[in-house]
Specification:
By secondary structure, the protein is an alpha+beta fold. It folds into two domains: about 90 residues, OB fold (Dihydrolipoamide Acetyltransferase, E2P) (Beta Barrel), CATH 2.40.50.140; about 300 residues, 2-Layer Sandwich (BirA Bifunctional Protein, domain 2). The chain is built from 13 helices and 18 strands. The strands form four sheets. It has an eight-stranded mixed sheet with strand order 6-10-11-18-17-16-13-12. A hairpin with a 4-residue loop joins strand 2 and strand 3. Helix 4 packs across helix 6. The two termini are about 45 Å apart. The mean pLDDT is about 95. Bound molecules: 4-amino-1,4-dioxobutan-2-aminium adenosine-5'-monophosphate and magnesium ion. The site of magnesium ion has 3 residues, from strand 17.
Length: about 425
C-alpha cells in the first residue's frame, strides 16, 4: 500500500491518514499493553503508540520496548488528534522497521554538566532544546537574507585568508602562507565590503570571523558568524535606521514562524514583541553620565564591557544605540565627527535583557590623507592596505556599514545564558572538540 513519508512538523496535515515517519527513538515507556515512543525526525518530536492487537503481538512489543534510545527506525501508522500528546497529534503505529540498534546512548540523565554535553556536542544537537535553538538560528539567517535582498542588497562573499588586521592586531590568528609569509584568519569582512559597495552600491557578507580573544565570557567565541552590510552614500544615521529595521524584522519573523521553538525554550516573548523601530539613541557621553549616576567608576574615554552594557540596556525596553564614542577606543577606519574630531560617527547596538552589544557599526573614513594617517598611527602595514587606500583615490564617497553577531543575536532571541549554544560547534579558548 502507498504510504507517504512525511515529517513530524507536517503531521497535522495528515490527520486520519496512514503515513511513514523516519527518525530516531528519543524516549519510551510502557503501560503493559501499550508502548509509547517519543520519536524525533529533526523537524519535531511526536508520540507513537504501539498496542497489542492486530499489528503487534506481545512478544514483538516486548522487544520494541527494550530498544535502546537513539535507535534509527522507520515507523508507519495512522495520524490521530490527541490533545495530551506533545504537538497535539500522535501516530497509532502499525509497523516498526528497525534500521539500526544504537549502543547505549551517553546522554541519559537530566543533570549532565555543560562540560560533558559540550564534549558530546555532536550528540547533544539531537536534544529538543538544541534543536529549537538552531532552528531559530536558521530562521534568523533566512530573515537576514530576505530583508536585505528585498532592499536591493547584493551578497558578496568575503575572503577568510587575509594579509592584515581589520579590528586590531592583538586578536589575530596567524598562519604560514607558502612563500608569501604570514596570513591571518579574517576578523571581519568589512574592508572587502567597502570595496564591494563601491562596485555594487549596497552589499553584505555573512561569514565566519575569527578573534584570538582571551575573553572567557558568555558573549565571546573565537570563531563566530557575522553579518556585515556596507552601503555607499549612507551616513551614520542612515546606517542606524537600517540596523533598527533589520533587527526588528528578524525578531518579528522569528516570532511569526518559530512560536513552537520559543515555547520549548520557555522564552518569555513579551519583551520581544516590543521590538520595533525606532530604537532609543544615546551618545557615549550620556552613557557615561548614566553609568556614573548608577555609581559605576567609569571615566570618559573608557570602553564598555558586558557589565556596563547590561546596566545601560536595563534602562530601555528595546535595543539601544550608543553613538559618538571616543575615537581612541574604536577601530582605525571610523569617520571622525566633524564637530569634535575626538569622537567618531559610530554606533554600538546594545540588546535588552543583559545580552550586550549585538552590532558595531560606523561611517567610514573616506578621505585619503586622514586614512593614511590613521593607518600609520595604528602601526598597520601600509603595503597590505594599498588596495584599501585605492578606494579613497577612485571615486571616494561617504559610506557606512555594520557588523551583527549572529550568535549573540540568537542567544538574545532564545533567551539562553551563553552564546556557545547558539552555534552548532562552538570554538572557544579551551574548546576545539568535537
Ligand atoms: O564590533 P565588531 O568588532 O565590529 C566589526 O568587526 C566591524 N568590522 C563590523 C563592521 O562594521 N562591518 O563586531 C561586530 C559584532 C559585535 O557587535 C558582536 O555582536 C559580534 O560581532 N562579535 C562577537 N561575537 C562572538 N564572539 C566574539 N568574540 C565577537 N566579537 C564580536
Ligand atoms: Mg564592537
Amino acid at each position: 500500500m502507498e504510504c507517504p513519508w512525511v515529517s513530524i512538523e507536517k503531521l497535522p496535515d495528515w490527520e486520519g491518514k496512514e503515513v511513514e515517519l523516519r527518525g530516531w527513538l528519543a524516549n519510551r515507556r510502557s503501560s503493559g499493553k501499550v508502548v509509547f515512543f517519543v520519536f524525533r525526525d529533526g523537524t519535531g518530536f511526536a508520540q507513537i503508540t504501539l498496542s497489542v492487537g492486530a499489528f503487534f503481538d506481545k512478544e514483538t512489543l516486548k522487544d520494541l520496548e527494550r530498544l535502546p534510545l537513539e535507535s534509527a527506525l522507520v515507523v508507519r501508522g495512522r495520524v490521530r488528534k490527541e490533545e495530551r500528546a506533545p504537538g497535539g497529534y500522535e501516530l497509532e503505529g502499525t509497523q516498526v522497521k528497525v534500521v539500526s540498534v544504537a549502543d547505549e546512548y551517553p546522554i541519559q540523565k537530566k543533570d549532565h554538566s555543560v562540560e560533558f554535553l559540550m564534549e558530546n556536542r555532536h550528540l547533544w544537537l539531537r536534544s529538543r532544546r538544541q534543536n529549537a535553538i538552531l532552528r531559530i538560528r536558521n530562521q534568523v539567517v533566512m530573515s537576514i537574507h530576505e530583508f536585505l535582498q528585498g532592499q536591493g542588497f547584493t551578497l558578496i562573499d568575503s575572503p577568510i585568508l587575509t594579509p592584515a588586521a581589520c579590528e586590531g592586531t592583538t586578536t589575530l590568528f596567524g598562519l604560514d602562507y607558502f612563500d608569501l609569509g604570514k596570513a591571518y584568519l579574517s576578523q571581519s569582512g568589512q574592508l572587502y565590503m567597502e570595496a564591494a559597495c563601491m562596485a555594487f552600491g549596497k552589499v553584505y557578507c555573512l561569514a565566519p570571523a575569527f578573534r584570538a580573544e582571551k575573553s572567557k565570557t558568555r558573549r565571546h567565541l573565537t570563531e563566530f558568524w557575522m553579518l556585515e552590510p556596507e552601503m555607499a552614500f549612507y551616513d551614520w544615521q542612515d546606517n542606524m535606521r537600517l540596523q533598527e529595521e533589520l533587527v526588528s524584522f528578524i525578531i518579528q519573523e522569528v516570532l511569526r514562524t518559530k512560536a513552537r521553538e520559543l515555547e520549548i525554550l520557555e522564552r518569555d516573548i513579551t519583551p520581544l514583541k516590543k521590538i520595533e523601530p525606532p530604537f532609543p539613541r544615546i551618545t557615549y557621553d550620556e552613557a557615561i553620565r548614566l553609568l556614573q549616576q548608577k555609581g559605576l567608576s567609569v571615566q570618559w574615554g573608557d570602553d564598555f564591557g558586558g557589565d556596563e552594557e547590561s546596566i545601560i540596556s536595563q534602562e530601555f525596553d528595546r535595543p539601544v544605540f550608543i553613538h559618538h564614542y571616543p575615537a581612541r577606543v574604536k577601530a582605525f577606519y571610523m569617520q571622525p565627527d566633524p564637530e569634535n574630531p575626538q569622537l567618531v560617527l559610530n554606533d554600538d547596538l546594545i540588546a535588552p535583557e543583559g545580552y550586550g552589544e549585538i552590532i558595531g557599526g560606523s561611517e567610514r573614513i573616506h578621505d585619503m590623507h586622514l586614512l593614511e594617517e590613521r593607518i600609520a598611527e595604528h602601526h598597520l602595514p601600509r603595503e597590505a592596505f594599498a588596495w584599501y587606500l585605492d578606494l579613497r583615490r577612485y571615486g571616494t564617497c561617504p559610506h557606512s556599514g555594520f557588523g551583527l553577531g549572529i550568535e549573540r543575536t540568537v542567544a538574545w532571541i532564545c533567551g539562553i545564558h551563553h552564546i556557545r549554544e547558539a552555534i552548532p560547534f562552538p570554538r572557544q579558548i579551551y574548546r576545539l572538540y568535537p
